[in-house]
Each structure stands twice: as structure tokens, then as C-alpha cells.
Design brief:
Chain A: It holds the Pfam family IF-2B. Chain A: One of its GO terms (molecular function) is guanyl-nucleotide exchange factor activity. The complex is a heterodimer of chains A (433) and B (550). Chain A is an alpha/beta fold. Chain A has 19 helices and 12 strands. Chain A has helices at residues 12-19, 24-36, 43-60, 66-83, 88-112, 115-121, 126-134, 140-149, 158-173, 192-215, 218-221, 235-245, 262-270, 277-280, 304-308, 333-342, 382-387, 418-425, 428-431, and strands at 227-231, 251-255, 295-299, 313-316, 320-322, 327-330, 347-350, 356-357, 389-390, 395-398, 405-408, 411-413. In chain A, the strands form 2 sheets. A 7-stranded mixed sheet of chain A has the order 3-2-1-4-7-11-12, with helices on both faces. Chain A is globular. Mean pLDDT of chain A is 79; it is low at 1-6, 114-155, 163-189 and 275-284. In chain B, strand 10 (527-530) and strand 11 form a beta hairpin. Helix content of chain B is 52%, strand content 8%. The model of chain B is unreliable at 1-71, 99-148 and 453-497 (pLDDT under 50). Chain B has helices spanning 2-14, 30-39, 41-51, 59-69, 72-100, 103-106, 108-117, 119-131, 137-160, 167-170, 187-197, 204-220, 230-248, 253-267, 275-306, 322-333, 351-360, 373-376, 402-410, 453-462, 464-467, 488-493, 540-549, and strands spanning 314-318, 339-344, 364-369, 382-385, 389-390, 396-399, 420-423, 510-512, 517-520, 527-530, 533-535. In chain B, helix 1 packs across helix 3 (41-51). Chain B is an alpha/beta fold and 550 residues long. The chains are: A alpha/beta (433), B alpha/beta (550). Chains A and B meet through helix 13, strand 3, helix 15, helix 16 and helix 17 of A and helix 17, strand 3, helix 18, helix 19 and helix 20 of B. Strand 9 of chain A pairs parallel with strand 3 of chain B.
């Protein structure tokens, strides 16, 4: 790979290419500026970039001291978050990496210390054990498997009591994902760093597979002859619908999400080559829905209410999901969700777990980013631009009561259950690091 | 293809007339001759001119006659052969037509050969290809089939592009030119039709006023033909105009109401009234109607709606209603200090003109599109909406997107509802009812959605020629919708590079839907301000009855 990042348009691809050749500090600086300039802006691109960067950061660390690793990751994470606080996935990935390091550190200590101490110490860890059963990619499962193999008694609470029988079934329920295979038991002096790197790689794998995993639930949610309304060109939604389209016939009404995403939406709908390089370039080119015989009706955003009375289901992508069950999604989503609620149409949000943020919003306005006003009012109307205040919000906050169901790579959840998944994925001490 | 047919009789007829190029005029050889003909063009062209005398008469009759005149015994043979050939020809024709599509392209020899032969026939044939008139019976059948198959295919394609739920609304294609308009249509109406179609005259009241003014000119230039009374004949004249207008764009409720009143007035004119005075009565009626129902009504509404605005208000409005604009300007001129937030939508961007007008008047204007509605509504204190019509069940029938704005106002988080005030003249009240936006609506050309501004802007910089039409906004009465400039040449030149939708008509399963209106439930509307007072939406049917009985 020639690291001619100069020749490339700055973005995820150029960043990943330059990552291996540039020094760490340059890479961090690079990502910070990319985030600041909004040259990496989609949730998954941000998550991938963060994960790869942290992988580099940790592998470049000359120490295996968990405390030092945590400090290092925290300092990098703070810089990234400061660069673009509204890309919450960046923080999510950092938190998960921190959690990984802490888990490894505790594992080590577990091995060293007396069993009696484990009780108090692994208290925050127990929910994670529960989570492992459903999250196959989480490397913790490997650890617990190994623990059991070592006949360690980790049953420290009722949660783990229940979770252990479930674990036996977990590989079967999640085919196609990594199942625990022969893994060297953790010796007391094992390399924390290697374990963490392994964990980050699994996060990266998760990011790669998350859409496919979500789409595997599609047939449970879409029946024949449905009329489905969606919004924006979200790849997750497209894959979800494509999966369903392989078996069933239905109709998709696609609101074009003018002015921020309409080009990509038009391209998605018509199957033309993707306009949005960053969003789709590293995706395998996928067929449009129309190629599978699905009728796709493109409508302007304003026609949503008029058509909602005929829609069976609204499927939405999202930018990030908050712990209270609300979500931050492309502007216009809220009004669509509201219209659906008014018409008693179920609203389904498809989102990878990585978008699930432990941040609880008290000030919703702070989550909203405003974009380029010239998309709303082109500079051809320059006289007007001078006189009036043109607004182009990029995101909407959609309250939890407007959402009926979340479908993540772990399955379907009610919005009220999300806090549980949050506590499974992030450790308390990392929520505000 | 049709050539071999003509040639068959022609050649046989020409043989006795001593043609050098036809040494094999024996009756037993018609088939090989024709085969060779179809293969070699020069031979055909040579022979055809000789067929001239026979050709002008209708083909089939002529052929039979020619055969009969010659020798009797081979005549039967010939007939047989002809029948065979006719069948073969028909088959070939079908095959070729389906393959080549265009009739002209598939038979170059014929196209070249015929003009010198029979100018008349050729003209007829050309016409038949276009206009589907069937000149001679045989010919006619050919082109008939030809033009038929593509039409069917096109129809299929078109149907594919129609959104099934809205199938009932598609109706006929909107008129694109004034060609083919009935000759009775008055030039003023012709012009108005095009203006309506292009949204130059847009908005319910503007359309109503423009229609009435055009009809006034029709009446002024009207002369009652002899043996007819004005009260009877004028309505038929008007109905031609109305039909024409409705092919340009479906009539609005206000137009319908005004036309109904006008017709009522015409029919109530005493036949004994002299024509001149009858015409003056009608013109006065039209002027009075416009003044009473729209001009003065607007002033009354604006005055009473402006009272609802207080200092510090944040008014949200959607698209560009003339009456809302009047209200806001009036309130501003009264010295009230408030902010206006305009929400606009694709593809008409009617709010832009409203924003411009308000900003020029010095108001504090904020502008965003449909996607920003939940943000705009956040600090709103009142929502003012215009109407296309109010239905008898109290629902507001207005520009698509209005319902979303009204809904957002009513569903604001925190439980505080924003009052939604509709400004609407009673001329827009109708006795129709509507439950959803699907049964009653208007479908606009979906191509309006294809061209979007961003690509235009980008390429506009590189291509100043294409850029120029963009800023030109037709502004008429402040209501003109800045129709997106979609000039065909520029669109095609950057078709592939810009909008991925340009090919949508050829993309199967992809449909674009561009509806004009939606229906806002009555519970989202708190007040309807009319010239007869401020009412709840449930009062619409009563007011409508009152105003139509008066």
C-alpha cells in the first residue's frame, strides 16, 4: 500500500492507508483534524477509524501496565472526542477499549489474588458476563470460557448464575460469528497488551459484520406485501431491506432526505454508483432494491404525512442511540417518527450496538449539529442569504417514546431495555473518562 | 415493406406496357421477382416508377383490377400468390417492426422509391405513421400495427411509473404545449393555461383571480352567434376554456367555486337582455367577485389574523401563502416585533419568495427546509398556515407538508401546544370531504423531483451557460414558485454526472411520486381565520352553506 495520502481525498480510506506508515502522534493528529473538518463523518467510518487508531496506539505502547495503557487510551480518546463531540461513536469505541483493558487487568488480578476477593471486585463485571452470552464478538466470552475450563468459581452473583447455562447455547444462536475456539488459558503473567489488541480486532470485526448481523433479523420483521417507509441512504437499512427482499416482496417508500443526504439517497434508490465515497467506498457494491424486484417509491420529505396512512412499518437508520432509548438521527427523522406515531405505524430503528452511547442527554440541543446553509439556500440566492437566517440542522433528537423497536446486532429490543445493553458494554468508570 | 405489394401488380401491369427491365413478366414468376426485389433496391426503384399509373388508385383494388385486365388464366394464380404474399408480408412487417421499431428505418428502399412515384400516397403514408389516419385499407393496417405495439409498450412503462395507490389521480398527461387546443379557446386563456402549468400563476387565490380575469376577457370579446341566446351559448364557450385550463393543471377548489358562481350568473341572465348590457353585467360580476371574495376578504383576514400576533412571537409558516404574507407584513407595519420562521419544501420552494418579501420588508426571517421542522417549531409560539381548501369535515387541504408542520406544532415535546392558525378565504371552502391525502390530491410531474439544486450549483460554476437560468425567478404577484430551471439541453449534458435519477423512467421498479397537497386532520387546526370571522374548523360546512346560499 503506497501511503500517498496526499493524492487521496482526505477521509477514512486515506487515513487507514497512512496509519501504518505514519508515526502514532501524526496519526492521532490526522484523525483529530479529519474529525474536526468533518471529513470522516459517518458513524461507522468514525468508529472504524477510532478502532484502528487505538489498535496502533496500544501496539505502539511499550508497556503492558494496564494503568498506563488506560491513561494512554484516555488521553487519545479525550482528544478525539474534543475534536468532534457529536460523533458519539468515537467515545463509544474508546470506552469499549478502556473496558477491555480493565477486564484484562482484573483477570490478571483475579489470577493473582485470593478467590475471596474476587467477589467484591468482579461486581461490576457480572453484567458483562451476562452480556457475553448474547454478544458473541465480545472477547469476554473467550475469557469466561477459559475461566470455566480452569474450573474457577466465578459465580459471584445471581446474574452469573443464570448466565452460565445460556453460554453453552450461545455459539449456536450466533452462527457466522466467531465462536470460542481453542484459546490458550490465561496464565498469570500473560500479556495484557496482546489480549487488548485481540479485543480491538474483534471490535473491528464487529464493525465489519454488524450490518449483516442486523440484516439477519430482517425476515422476522418484514412480511410479504408490506409497505415500508424509510429515510436517508443508511447502509444498515438498505442491507436489512435487501435481506428481506431476497425472500419477500414488498414496497419501499423512500423519503429523499433533502438537502443533506438526497444525492446519496437518489443513488441508493436508483442503483447508480455511490455518490458518497466515504460512506460506501469500502462496502462491497450492493444491488439496489429495485434489482430484486422491489418497488421503490421516492418521495420528497414533505409527502411523508400524506403517505403514512398506507405505510405498515417505518424503518429508520440512526446516527447514534442514547442510553435513554432516544436517538440522534438525520434531520427529518423526528417528524417522520412522529407522523408514524400519529398513524399508529410501528417505528423500527436498526442500529449496531456500537452506536449505542452511554451518554444521557440532558440538553438535547447540544447533540444537534448544524450544517452547510448553502445546501438549503444556494448561493445563487445570495441576496436572500444576506438578509435571512438560514438553518440546516444535520440531526434530530428522536425521543424514545416515538420508537417502538430497536434492532441491533444482538436482536430486537424495546427502547426501555437499552440502558441494560449500555451497562453491559461500558463500564461505569469509563462513562465519563 | 409495403413496396413488394405495390410492385406485384405494378410489375405485372407494366410488363405488357413494354418495360425493358422486366423481361420475366410471366405470371408464374411473381414470387421470385418479389424476392429479388426485396433483396435489391435498385431493381425496386427501377420498377416502381413504372408502377406509377397503377399506384395512385387504392392498392388492393388496383392490383385486382390489373390482374383481371391482363390474362384471365394467370389471374387466379396471381391472386393466390398475392394472398400468400400478403400473409408473408404481414408477417415480415410484424417481425421487422418489432425489431427495428421505426417504420421508416426498416424500409429504406420504400422511403426512397416512393416519393417520386406517388407523392400523394406518400404524404398520406407519412401522415398515417404520425397521426394514425388509415389511408388505403392495406397500408393503414400496416402502420396501424406498427404504431400500436410501441404505444402498448409505452403504456406499460408509464403504468409502471405510476404509484399504484395514486393510480386514480394520474388521469391524462398534462398539456405541454398549446398545440391541439380547441380553436374556441381564447388567447388569454391559452396563455393562462401555460402559466398555470408552469406554476407561474400558483396558489389557490392567484389562480382563481387569474382565471376570472381571463374569463372576463373571453366575455368581453364574445359575440352571441345568431339564433342563440347569450345565457345559453356563453356557458358552452366557457366550458371549452375550462376544459383547456383543466388539461394544463387540474382546477383548484377556488377556481371551481368561482366558475360555478359565474355560470350561475350567466344562466340567470334574462335572454331578452341586450348583449352589451349582459356582458357589462357579467364583467361587473367578475370584478365584484374578485373584490369581494378575494381582495377585500384578504384584507379582512390579514387584519384579523395580524391581531393574533404579539410582540415577541415566533411565527412558523410553511411554504408561501399570499394571505400569510399579507398578514405578517401588516403586523410588521403595525409595529409589532416578532420573528418569522419559514419552512420550505422541495420541489417548488415557494417559501423562498415569501422569505424574500418579508426580508425586504425588514422582518426577522429564519429559513429552513422540511427536515428542520422540529427545530423550527421548538421555539415557535404560533403557526400560521395558508390553505388550498378547507373541506367540509374541517380538514385543511393544503400544500404537501402542511400536515407535518401542523402535527409538529401539536406534538411538541413538553406538552405545550403551539396554536395553529389557518388563514383562508371562504371561496376556498368546499363541500367535499376528505379523510386522507390519497383519495383527493393532485399529481405533479415527477420529473420536477429529478433536478435538484446542488448539482446545478456545482456544475453551474464550471458552466456559466447552464448557470444563468437558475437565478431567474419568475415573480408574479409574489406567488410565483421558483420553478426549478430544468432546461432540456443542460439537463442532458450533465445527465450522467449529476443526478442519478435522470434515468428513472428507464429504471424498472423505481417510481417517483410528486403529490401537491396533503390533508391536515381537523384536530391540528385551532382556528380558521376567514373574512366572516375566526372559526373552529368544524364551522367550515356551515359557513360554506351560508356563503353559497347568499
Amino acid at each position: 500500500m503506497p501511503s500517498t495520502s496526499v493524492a487521496l481525498t482526505p477521509g477514512l480510506a486515506s487515513f487507514l492507508k497512512s496509519l501504518n506508515t505514519n508515526p502514532i502522534d501524526t496519526s492521532i493528529e490526522n484523525l483529530v483534524s479529519l474529525l474536526k473538518r468533518r471529513q470522516i463523518r459517518h458513524s461507522r467510518s468514525c468508529a472504524t477509524a477510532t478502532a484502528y487508531l487505538l489498535l496502533r496506539v496500544i501496539s505502539a505502547c511499550r508497556t503492558s501496565e494496564p494503568v498506563k495503557l488506560i491513561e494512554r487510551v484516555q488521553s487519545v480518546g479525550r482528544r478525539l472526542i474534543a475534536a468532534q463531540p457529536r460523533e458519539m461513536v468515537v467515545g463509544n469505541i474508546v470506552r469499549r477499549v478502556l473496558g477491555l483493558i480493565r477486564d484484562e487487568a482484573e483477570d490478571d488480578r483475579d489470577a493473582e489474588f485470593a478467590l475471596s476477593e474476587a467477589g467484591s471486585e468482579s461486581q461490576p463485571q457480572t453484567p458483562r458476563g451476562f452480556d457475553d452470552s448474547s454478544l458473541p464478538l465480545d472477547r469476554d466470552m473467550l475469557r469466561t470460557e477459559a475461566d470455566r475450563a480452569a474450573s474457577r468459581p466465578p459465580l459471584t452473583s445471581m446474574f452469573s448464575l443464570l448466565s452460565h447455562p445460556v453460554e453453552d447455547n450461545s455459539p449456536a444462536s450466533t452462527p457466522g460469528t466467531q465462536s470460542p475456539r481453542g484459546f490458550p488459558g490465561h496464565g498469570p503473567g500473560k500479556d495484557v497488551r496482546a489480549e487488548v489488541l485481540e479485543g480491538i480486532n474483534e471490535i473491528i470485526d464487529e464493525l465489519d459484520q454488524v450490518d449483516d448481523q442486523i440484516s439477519s433479523y430482517a425476515l422476522e420483521h418484514i412480511h410479504s406485501n408490506e409497505i415500508i417507509l424509510t429515510h436517508t441512504s443508511s447502509t444498515t437499512v438498505q442491507k436489512f431491506l435487501l435481506k428481506a427482499a431476497s425472500k419477500r416482496k414488498f414496497t419501499v417508500i423512500h423519503a429523499e432526505s433533502f438537502p443533506n443526504n438526497h444525492d446519496a439517497t437518489h443513488a441508493t434508490v436508483s442503483g447508480a454508483s455511490p455518490v458518497d465515497e466515504e460512506n460506501l467506498s469500502f462496502e462491497a457494491f450492493q444491488k439496489p432494491l429495485i434489482a430484486l424486484g422491489i418497488t421503490v417509491i421516492l418521495i420528497p420529505d414533505s409527502a411523508v404525512f400524506a403517505l403514512m396512512s398506507r405505510v405498515n412499518k417505518v424503518i429508520l437508520g440512526t446516527h447514534s442511540v442514547l442510553a435513554n432509548g432516544g436517538l440522534v438521527a438525520a434531520a427529518g427523522t423526528r417528524v417522520i417518527a412522529r407522523a408514524a406515531k400519529v398513524h399508529q405505524t410501528p417505528v423500527v430503528v436498526v442500529s449496531g450496538v456500537y452506536k449505542l452511547s452511554p451518554v444521557y442527554p440532558f440538553d438535547f440541543d447540544s447533540l444537534i449539529e448544524y450544517g452547510d446553509a448553502s445546501k438549503v439556500l444556494p448561493f445563487e440566492d445570495g441576496d436572500l442569504v444576506d438578509q435571512i437566517d438560514v438553518q440546516n440542522p444535520l440531526y434530530d433528537y428522536v425521543p424514545a417514546e416515538l420508537v417502538d423497536l430497536y434492532i441491533t446486532n444482538l436482536g430486537g429490543h424495546a427502547p426501555s431495555y437499552l440502558y441494560r445493553i449500555v451497562s453491559d458494554h461500558y463500564r461505569k468508570e469509563d462513562i465519563s473518562f | 415493406m409495403t413496396d413488394p405489394v405495390d410492385l406485384a401488380p405494378a410489375s405485372s401491369a407494366a410488363a405488357p406496357a413494354s418495360t425493358p427491365s422486366q423481361p420475366t413478366a410471366t405470371p408464374s414468376q411473381p414470387l421470385p421477382i418479389r424476392d429479388s426485389k426485396s433483396a435489391t433496391d435498385p431493381a425496386q426503384q427501377d420498377k416502381k416508377p413504372k408502377g406509377k399509373p397503377a399506384a395512385p388508385a387504392t392498392a388492393s383494388g388496383d392490383a385486382v383490377a390489373a390482374g383481371g385486365e391482363k390474362v384471365l388464366t394467370p389471374a387466379e394464380l396471381k391472386k393466390k400468390a398475392k394472398e400468400e404474399k400478403a400473409a408473408r408480408r404481414a408477417k415480415e412487417k410484424l417481425e421487422r417492426e418489432s425489431g427495428a421499431g421505426a417504420a421508416g428505418g426498416s424500409a429504406p428502399g420504400g422511403a426512397q422509391g416512393r416519393p417520386p412515384v406517388t407523392p400523394k400516397k406518400d404524404a398520406a403514408g407519412g401522415a398515417s405513421q404520425k397521426g394514425q389516419k388509415a389511408p388505403p385499407p392495406r397500408r393503414g393496417s400496416g402502420p396501424g400495427i406498427v404504431s400500436h405495439t410501441p404505444v402498448v409498450e409505452q403504456k406499460k412503462k408509464k403504468d409502471d411509473k405510476k404509484v399504484a395507490v395514486f393510480g386514480h389521480l394520474y388521469g391524462q398527461q398534462r398539456r405541454t404545449t398549446i398545440a391541439g387546443a380547441a380553436k374556441e379557446v381564447h388567447p388569454a386563456v391559452l396563455a393562462l393555461g401555460l402559466q398555470l402549468r408552469d406554476y407561474v400563476v400558483c396558489g389557490s387565490s392567484a389562480r382563481c383571480v387569474a382565471t376570472l380575469l381571463a374569463f372576463k376577457r373571453v366575455i368581453e370579446s364574445y359575440d352571441t352567434p345568431p339564433n342563440n341566446s347569450l345565457s345559453r351559448h356563453l356557458t358552452t364557450v366557457l366550458s371549452h376554456q375550462i376544459t383547456y385550463l383543466s388539461t394544463c393543471r387540474p382546477l383548484s377548489i377556488s377556481q371551481g367555486n368561482a366558475i360555478r358562481q359565474l355560470k350561475l350568473t350567466i344562466s340567470s341572465i334574462d335572454p331578452s337582455t341586450p348583449e352589451a348590457s349582459a356582458k357589462t353585467t357579467l364583467c361587473e360580476f367578475i370584478d365584484g367577485y374578485i373584490r369581494e371574495k378575494i381582495t377585500v376578504a384578504d384584507q379582512v383576514i390579514a387584519a384579523s389574523a395580524a391581531q393574533k400576533i404579539q410582540d415577541g412571537d415566533v411565527i412558523v409558516t410553511f411554504a408561501g401563502s399570499s394571505i400569510v404574507k399579507q398578514t405578517l407584513l401588516l403586523a410588521h407595519s403595525e409595529g409589532k416585533r416578532f420573528r418569522v420562521s419559514i419552512i420550505d419544501s422541495r420541489p417548488l420552494f415557494e417559501g423562498k419568495n415569501l422569505a424574500r418579501a418579508l426580508a425586504n420588508a425588514g422582518l426577522d426571517v429564519q429559513y429552513s427546509l422540511m427536515h428542520g421542522v422540529s427545530h423550527a417549531i421548538k421555539d415557535a409560539t404560533k403557526v400560521f398556515l395558508g390553505a388550498h381548501a378547507m373541506t367540509s369535515n374541517g380538514r385543511l387541504y393544503s400544500r404537501v407538508g402542511t400536515a407535518l408542520v401542523a402535527m409538529s406544532a401539536k406534538e411538541r415535546a413538553g406538552g405545550v401546544e403551539v396554536p395553529v392558525i389557518v388563514c383562508c378565504e371562504t371561496v376556498k371552502f368546499t363541500d367535499r370531504v376528505a379523510l386522507d391525502s390519497i383519495v383527493v390530491n393532485e399529481i405533479a410531474d415527477a420529473d420536477e423531483l429529478v433536478s435538484n439544486q446542488l448539482p446545478q450549483q456545482v456544475t453551474g460554476l464550471a458552466d456559466p451557460g447552464a448557470h444563468t437560468p437558475a437565478p431567474v425567478d419568475p415573480k408574479k404577484g409574489g406567488k410565483a414558485a421558483p420553478k426549478e430551471p430544468t432546461p432540456a439541453p443542460s439537463a442532458s449534458s450533465r445527465a450522467s454526472s449529476t443526478s442519478p435519477l435522470t434515468e428513472w423512467k428507464d429504471t424498472s421498479n423505481l417510481q417517483l411520486l410528486n403529490i401537491m397537497y396533503d390533508v391536515t386532520p381537523a384536530e391540528y387546526v385551532d382556528m380558521v381565520v376567514t373574512e366572516m370571522g375566526s372559526l373552529p374548523p368544524s364551522a367550515v360546512p356551515i359557513v360554506h352553506r351560508m356563503s353559497t346560499n347568499m
